[in-house]
Amino acid sequence: MINMRYLLVFCAILMVQMAYAIIEIHVYVDENIDYILPFFNYSRVIENAPQRLRIVVENIGSVSCNLRMRSDIYRDETLEYVAWSKGILIEPGDTREINTYFYPTKSGNYTARNFIYYCNRIFEGPVVNFTAIMRNKTLNITENETERSLEIDYETTERYVDIKIKPNRDIENLVIIPRRYPLGWIFESLSVDSLGKNEEKTIRVAYIPTVWKESKIEFEFVTMDGEIYHSEEIKLEKKSILPIKDIIIVILVIINVILLMSIIYLKRLRRVEESGRREKRGGKGKRR
């Protein structure tokens, strides 16, 4: 009996110690921002076609990051164009691909200096050289063909441009490049893998202005093989979007107005019915 008591006491002390140890255990994970570039690709020579700068990023850190690439394109040491990729979210352990696009207007030797925007930090990326051979075939011959091949419409807001494209024939690898836009703004360039004949597709091109203002933006629509080229100027205008809260308030006000009118109508109807009843009662009394 005594041994059993000692055993119970020992077990109770052991359980208390284990519980205390469990409570005191803490796991600390150091947060760090880090990445690697397992793949980078571009064309050393392009002929009547756009340049695609393709980079693959792997998040080897412990936090989620917003990811974007900027490509500064120089020709003979003169800045020719600034290309921006789409902005995406990359989680720890994920591998994501981003691209920038550039369509030269002149033949020559170009240099692309690339920068990685990662978790609100800017890192220097690869610096590459390439040669462009532009024989004006795309610009002069297929412009009219493009107008027949593509129907383009658009809507603009303060944060994005919705471009509606309807081709009259099948199109592969169409690139949309904002060729001219206000200095200091971020304007994404992107591609559409395929468009079927008479298939209308809306492509959203996001942008980040410094200070928004009505502006004219020139877009280039060109296929990766250079067979189709078209440029179009659009005007950025504000689109009045009613916030969800305001929509709910308007709906509630309308419902309240309808209910109030219904109550007023029912009250009037009751008064008319009561008045009719009184008249009937009064008529019966007179007959008696």
- Helix tally? 3
Mean pLDDT: 84
- Extended strand count: 17
Q: How far apart are the first and last residues' alpha carbons, in Å? A: 106 Å
CATH superfamily of the domain at 35-133: Immunoglobulins
Low-confidence stretches: 20-28, 138-143
Label the overall shape.
flat
Q: Order of SSEs, N→C?
A: HEEEEEEEEEHEEEEEEEEH
Beta-strand share of residues: 35-45%
Structural class: alpha+beta
CATH class category label of the domain at 35-133 = Mainly Beta
CATH names the topology of the domain at 35-133 as Immunoglobulin-like
Under the CATH scheme, the architecture of the domain at 35-133 is Sandwich
Structure characterization notes:
This protein is of the alpha+beta class and 288 residues long. Among the domains are: 35-133, Immunoglobulin-like, CATH 2.60.40; 137-235, Sandwich (Immunoglobulin-like). Helices cover 28% and strands 44% of the residues. A hairpin with a 5-residue loop joins strand 16 (216-223) and strand 17. It is flat and about 105 Å long. It starts with a helix and ends with a helix. The model is unreliable at 20-28 and 138-143 (pLDDT under 50).
List keywords for this structure.
alpha+beta, single chain, 288 residues, Immunoglobulin-like, four-stranded antiparallel β-sheet, 3 helices, flat
